[in-house]
Amino acid sequence: MTAANGEVIRLPTPAAMAAEAAGRIAAIAEAAVADHGYFAWALSGGNTPVATYRMLAQSPWRERIDWGRTHVFFADERFVPHDHADSNYRLAEETLLSHVPIPAQNVHPTPITTPEASAEAYERSVLDFFAPQPPRFDLVTLGMGPDGHTASLFPGMDDVGGGLVAAVHNSPKPPPLRLTMTYRLLNEARHVLFLVSGADKAALLEQIAANADTPLPAGKVVLSERPVVWLAHLSG
Ligand SMILES: O=C1O[C@H](COP(=O)(O)O)[C@@H](O)[C@H](O)[C@H]1O
């Protein structure tokens, strides 16, 4: 199946999806390090990627990734302290980052001060990381909520400003305050991998597959060089 913005690969079980994702992430990391000496990855939170993160922390995937050359950023973050149960940073730290030899300075959590100041500061750190090149992640891994949101870009949130990172107020999914990378930044990535799990998301994926002009945020992530890849386990 193809989606208007990419290729859809259906997997029979959550474990199969995690293994497929881990293999693809490791391959992209290897290619990025071979090409330009580092692997810049913007990852997501939510429930779906947990199995993949746990798998990446184990052999053989753990050894395939050069963690010393890997830099981890956050495609979105809930505006809570980093030790809060809702924090995407905490999730990534507990399930993956604390189990692999990634240097502390290679993990780039969002600052949590005030929403606008944090968005501005995070945008600055993304720009500084890639300078003098324009910001371009080797990989962005994203999820899709049952309303079609991705990162913290929600349906109806049409104006996220012209920046690379935006503060989100009144998110329909708690917590209400969030930070998110915008389409402008996400769509510059070399690779985008969606991890989608749950029967409640099957119809949404059909909608995105059928409609190039979908208003659903997840369908608006489009790359110029290659299709977005959707790994989907949609049966219950
Ligand atoms: O709130 C969020 O939700 C999305 C989707 O999560 P999932 O549990 O349905 O996979 C996630 O991608 C995003 O990072 C997170 O902040």
From TrEMBL:
A GO biological-process term: carbohydrate metabolic process
Residue ranges occupied by any Glucosamine/galactosamine-6-phosphate isomerase domain in the UniProt entry: 13-230
Claim: NADP is one of the keywords in the record: no
Catalytic function, reaction form: 6-phospho-D-glucono-1,5-lactone + H2O = 6-phospho-D-gluconate + H(+)
Pathway membership, UniProt: Carbohydrate degradation; pentose phosphate pathway; D-ribulose 5-phosphate from D-glucose 6-phosphate (oxidative stage): step 2/3
Enzyme class: hydrolase
Pfam families: Glucosamine_iso (PF01182)
InterPro entries, A to Z: 6-phosphogluconolactonase_DevB, 6PGL, Glc/Gal-6P_isomerase
Family label: Belongs to the glucosamine/galactosamine-6-phosphate isomerase family. 6-phosphogluconolactonase subfamily.
Record's function text: Hydrolysis of 6-phosphogluconolactone to 6-phosphogluconate.
Name of the protein in question: 6-phosphogluconolactonase
